[in-house]
What we know:
By secondary structure, the protein is mainly alpha-helical. It has one helix at about 5-109. The protein contains 1 helix and no strands. The chain is rod-shaped and about 145 Å long.
Amino acid sequence: FPSLPHSHTLGAWDMQDAYIQERADAMENIHSTIVELGTIFRQLAEMVKEQEEQVIRIDANVDETQTNVEAAHTELLKYFKGITSNRWLMIKIFLVVIVFFIIFIVFLT
């Protein structure tokens, strides 16, 4: 084997060490990024869990509101039927009073 100059060998080792150091730095950067992403995903999971509870409460409130609206609609229909039947009763009474008034005027005058 031909003998390589000592400075050439040190330069190759220095380049290899520099390459290995760059790779180690890149791996450390990737590792820290993955750890940071893990933290972000944990926080996101917590936020989703909190939102889930709110969505469940909103859904329950919507169901309760729908039930109340249906009950109110039923009560309004009952009230409307009551008003219309009372209206006809009032009209009948008014007609009877008018008939008696006309009879009173015609026969007593």
